[in-house]
Amino acid sequence: MSMDFGAPADDPKVFRNICRDRILKDLLKPDKDKETKSSWKVLIMDKFTVKIMGYACKMAEITDAGISLVEDLFKRREPMPSMDAIYFLQPLKENVIMLLSDMSGRCPLYRKAYIFFSSPIPKELVTYIKNDSSVIPRIGALREMNLEFFTIDMQGFVTDHDTALVDLYGPSDNSKVFNDTITTMATRIATTFASLKEFPSVRYRAPKGDASTTTKFDMVPKWLATAVWDIVSKYKSTIPEFPQKETCELLIVDRPIDQIAPVIHEWTYDAMCHDLLEMDGTKYIYEVSKAGSDPEQKEAVLEDHDPLWLELRHAHIADASERLYEKMNTFVSKNKAAQLSRDGGEVSTRDLQKIVQALPQYSDQVEKLTLHIEIAGKINRFIREYGLRDIGQLEQDLVFGDAGAKEVISILRSKQDMSPENKLRLLIIYAIVYPEKFEGDKGDKLMQLAKLPHDDMDVIKCLRYLEGSDLKKSSRTGTFSLKFDAQKKKNAARTEKQDGEETWALSRFFPLIEELIEKLSKGELPLKEYPSMGEPSSAPQGTTQTASTAGPAQNPAPMSMRSRRTPTWAKSKNSGDSQSSDSSVLRHSSGDFKRLGNRIFVFMIGGATRSELRTVHKLTMKMKREIVLGSSSIDDPPQFISKMKSIGSANNK
What is the spatial distance between Cα 194 and Cα 197, in angstroms, rounded to a whole number? Predict the structure, then answer.
């Protein structure tokens, strides 16, 4: 009796699968009409393109496409004059120099070179290649792949600008870094649309002030939108079969619109793994004990190819834990050999090891389940040890206006063992919702009560900096005033959703992009606050109103949620689960994503969060349109706080 873990979606029209297929079919099989089964090739990449490949494809898929060897462009390589080579490179001069070095002269390293550049190649580099007459006959193809982004998720990508928050919003006057970041980010965003053959209508968060009063940081979304629009508009004449009218929507926003999402505790399995465990990207290191030998260190990669991870990652941690034990208990109850291998009572890790020995045919499944049960157990232990339920409840209550100074002071006094990071995260949320509590010396007194170093106050002040205020002036005068969204009568950063969904406790919070995407899809996103580049040819499919006629949507009245606080994490199983797994989203949606309506892309400058990535999966199912999230990076709370400290530190120099 095997265990049902579900299966990752393999719909060829899902965002990441389109990118993967372009690599496997267009890049790795450039001369497929003439190929035979023995037509093995060498694949040569630079440090950047190897990451693109790593995120999009598995090594087995690359091998199946006819690649016998993967090489680093800048490492010494053995000549293979009887084999063809595929070069996948960024269009940089140093890369072209190495390429020509490989293929020029009397003894080239390879028989033929099929050259693919990740983005448009400058004319001067094309001329540079043409000038080497010995290389030209050896070039089998020279193409622009327009593939310069990392597909980190079925519906998510990053442009690999991990320091964008500091480079674009920090106090540095280095205009070259600023301009280069905008330019390369725009190029990489544009290549997503070139890859998909999609022409987007582009909208962006408008600057808050006029041209004479606004800061350059406040102009970042507009400048990026302009750069992206300029590039994709040229695709209409440079890329064959590229659409001439808008086929999708792109909304460009930045981290200042929602400073709570990067620091609040997100209670899904994925977010908890990256927040509480020491992970290296998607890698998790753990120990396996074997009888009569020392514990063995193993490495697990938590990615989409693991169907159990795909099923659970967007589930609430309590729900994920329940599902894991249900799967194991169901498996044990239907397997006599498994029943004989347990010690009685609930299934333990030791029982799982015995089951693996008794049922070797199920070893992969049981080991995968054992891994996730161990991870969930470790997370739940940390939740108890760190007192995260109480902290998380207060964070949610602050966001929805159900708590204030009394509750914050109480928890800082009563939880003396709260970690400095959790104290700072709580105070960041408090400062956003109650900015007046940090005016004058009030903020310093709160820092003293929390026993946090004075330097941490710089992080709170940086919240203003993200809003486009003059941080240096604020530091000199000692005053502090945050002007965040004051749309509610009571202090609250969110209005409770009234969609009738029952949710797990501690999961009321939602990222602001959820409201923006819903309004964009309905044609209700205010054009004044989110202007459009150019004039859209027509209303995109799936909208109910054109952007040009859309007006500001009225916010519902705030609703107190005190009556809905619950002491448990339980909820009815048949209720709508806003934290459900994204594998179910993809399984239950149509096999043809185009039939769901045109795609919506949202790009977050300065780092997106895992809650925002979860949101696009949730809304894809809800709105019957594929939503894709792009960002300069994906940041967990420690990374975001570290970047904020870098901005504060740079300002104090």
Answer: 5
Name the least confident of 188-197, 340-349, 453-462, 507-516: 340-349
The half-sphere exposure of 361 on its side-chain side, counting CA atoms within 13 A, is 6
Residues 6+ apart with CB under 8 A from 33: none
Please compute, for residue 477, the number of CA atoms within 13 A of its CA located in the half-sphere on the CB side: 11
- What's the one-letter identity of residue 121? I
List, for residues 288-342, the tens digit of each pLDDT value: 766 667 778 888 889 888 889 999 999 999 999 999 988 888 877 766 555 545 5
Q: Are 255 and 607 in contact (CB under 8 A)?
A: yes
Task: Report the candidate in 201, 304, 187, 206 with the shortest Cα–Cα distance to residue 613.
Answer: 304
Instruction: Tell me the two tokens of residue 120.
Output: 């448009």
Cβ pair 394, 408 in contact under 8 A: yes
> What sign does the dihedral 26-29-31-35 (CA atoms) show?
negative
For the chain, the 3-state helix, strand and coil shares in percent, each to the nearest 5, are 45, 10, 40
Alpha-carbon gap, residue 423 to 408, rounded angstroms = 10
Q: Nearest 5 degrees, angle CA 132-CA 85-CA 54?
A: 120
Inter-residue contact 632 to 159 (CB < 8 Å): yes
The torsion defined by the Cα of 85, 90, 95 and 101, in degrees rounded to 10, comes to: 20
Q: Are strands 156-158 and 150-153 parallel, antiparallel or unpaired?
A: antiparallel
Contact 310, 583 (CB under 8 A): yes
429 forms bridges with which residues in the sheet? none
Per-residue DSSP letters for 285-331? EEEE--TTS--EEEEEE-STTSHHHHHHTTSBHHHHHHHHHHHHHHH
